Amino acid sequence: MSSITLHPLLDQGLSKGDPGFSGGKLHCHCKKNPVEVTLGGNVAHNHACGCSKCWKPAGALFSIVGVISKDQVQVTAGADKLHIVDKEATIQRHACKDCGVHLFGRIEKQHPFTGLDFVHPELSEEKGWQEPQFAAFVSSIIEQGFSPDRMDEVRGKFKTLGLETYDCLSPALMDAIATWTAKKAGLL
Ligand SMILES: N[C@@H](CCC(=O)N[C@@H](CSCO)C(=O)NCC(=O)O)C(=O)O
Ligand SMILES: [Zn+2]
Ligand SMILES: [Zn+2]
């Protein structure tokens, strides 16, 4: 049985981020005229995501994605190459039309996370980005054809890395969503 590739950055073991890190540039994978996005700070809630919608590098089972305030996200080159992958999705993922890499995902509708953009720190050459904190939507990899018989192996690998696994988001993020919902309903 072949070994599992969660994500190249996870398979080599986690390297800790720098709490004083102040941001950097993301680039798509195009050799010529790559799209460039400049982030004015570090990401938060960085996590491995097994959902079918987040961008993953070739061969990876999981995406690595964090959030950052949209005010700290600027497209600094190649804006004309960007398109929205799915206009109906909550997270409007802006991807390069040429290489398919997602540069940022923005929430435009009323939502607990409106104002936060979803980004992939691995698209940056700078070091210091927050390391992944947990694994989310782990069971979602089955929906994409991964064998349910090997889920213990997947969750075990995350455990070895010291990352908790969830089949939705982390408790902190789920609590934030529920708080927003309760406030909207006038219950809090
Ligand atoms: N089983 C589905 C789950 C998709 C899903 O709900 N993804 C989450 C997490 S994305 C980053 O953590 C989500 O919030 N999606 C909103 C959106 O994608 O617009 C699947 O695998 O597709
Ligand atoms: Zn590209
Ligand atoms: Zn996802």
UniProtKB/TrEMBL annotation:
Catalyzed reactions per annotation: S-(hydroxymethyl)glutathione = glutathione + formaldehyde
UniProt EC number: 4.4.1.22
Keywords from the UniProt entry: Lyase, Metal-binding, Zinc
MF terms (GO), sorted A to Z: S-(hydroxymethyl)glutathione synthase activity; zinc ion binding
GO biological process, one term: formaldehyde catabolic process
Pathway linked to the protein: One-carbon metabolism; formaldehyde degradation; formate from formaldehyde (glutathione route): step 1/3
Domain CENP-V/GFA: 21-167
Family matches, as SUPFAM superfamilies: Mss4-like
Note on cofactor: Binds 2 Zn(2+) ions per subunit.
EC main group: lyase
Statement: the UniProt record of this protein carries the keyword Electron transport: no
Protein family membership: Belongs to the Gfa family.
Summary of the function given for this chain in its UniProt record: Catalyzes the condensation of formaldehyde and glutathione to S-hydroxymethylglutathione.
PANTHER family xrefs: CENP-V_GFA DOMAIN-CONTAINING PROTEIN-RELATED (PTHR33337:SF40), GFA DOMAIN-CONTAINING PROTEIN (PTHR33337)
Protein name: Putative glutathione-dependent formaldehyde-activating enzyme
Native source species: Coniochaeta ligniaria NRRL 30616
Top-level taxonomy: Eukaryota, Fungi, Dikarya, Ascomycota, Pezizomycotina
